[in-house]
Amino acid sequence: MFAFLVALLVLALPQAQAPAQPQAVVCSNVWHSRAPEFEEYLKAAKVDKITNIPIGVTRPRRAYLAPGGLVGSFAWKPIPPGVQNSYFESYKSEIAAYELDKLLGLNMVPVVVERRVENDLGAAVMWVEGVRSWESVQPLPKPATWGFQLARMKMFDDLISNSDRNKGNLIVDADWHIYLIDHSRAFVTETKLPQELQNIDRKLWDRMLALDEAGLKTAMGAWLDTRQIQALIRRRDAMKKKIDALVAKNGQTVFF
């Protein structure tokens, strides 16, 4: 009888639940540490078809590549350098943003290369898969790295004079990495800083401070002329004045 009562008691107790398996998150940055491989693929892969993209003032198109390769498609932006709709725009600025991202170790700009499609020369911007729009993630709780990424984005936009940063050119993957796209209006020759800085990534800032005209010409001279490179240096110097003032006011807490 005692054994029977013990058995009934055990059955009455709540049964232990198997621990829930953590939901897998996917980082869309598949090109990290393999950038040269992805660059070469984007330059040479055969385009199967091209379709219009119904958004974007620069009217980009989407070029689809053969299935099963490193990249499924790319945004095609054959924008000749010049003033359009009161803005200076150039496909070369798209490539320059990617090359500067590599130089700074930012890792937020998807792969961009120069290539010819349908007899037009332009920028092929890798189409990042598995991402969400900026608007769709705004109601969601953010990870601790969110503010750090936003600070890095603002520093980058000030350096390249990107006044066109908006919700349409920010995308977010499942692992909460922010990617920066659409830089055709960047790298103008003015020194105005479009972003207001509150926090600074110290390592990124050290890399920006190390930039010089000779090094930038070596890395980006194919995409930017001398005036654009010199303007970038002047903006970096203007950033230094603002960051120095920020540190004088708030101390070392401004640095991540």
What distinguishing features does this structure have?
10 strands, five-stranded antiparallel β-sheet, 256 residues, disordered N terminus, alpha+beta
Briefly summarize what is shown:
With 256 residues, the protein is α+β, with helices and mostly antiparallel strands.
Description:
This protein is of the alpha+beta class. Helix 5 packs across helix 8 (226-250) and helix 7 (213-220) crosses helix 8 (226-250). The model is unreliable at 1-22 (pLDDT under 50). 37% of the residues lie in helices and 18% in strands. The strands form three sheets. Strands 1-2-3-7-6 form a five-stranded antiparallel β-sheet, sandwiched between helices. Strands 8-9-10 form a three-stranded antiparallel β-sheet. The protein has helices at residues 2-12, 35-44, 91-104, 134-137, 146-160, 202-209, 213-220, 226-250, and strands spanning 47-52, 61-65, 73-77, 82-84, 87-89, 112-117, 120-126, 131-133, 170-173, 178-180. The radius of gyration is 24 Å and the shape is globular.
Strand element count: 10
Mean pLDDT: 90
Helix percentage: 25-40%
Treating each run of at least 4 consecutive H or I residues as one helix, how many helices?
8
Arrangement of strands in the largest sheet? 1-2-3-7-6
Low-confidence runs: 1-22
Derived from helix and strand composition plus strand pairing, the structural class reads alpha+beta
β-strand percent reads 15-25%
The shape, in one word, is globular
Q: Calculate the terminal CA-CA distance, rounded to whole Å.
A: 67 Å
How would you characterize the largest beta sheet? 5 strands, antiparallel
Q: C-alpha Rg, in Å? A: 24 Å
Sequence of secondary-structure elements: HHEEEEEHEEEHHEEHHH
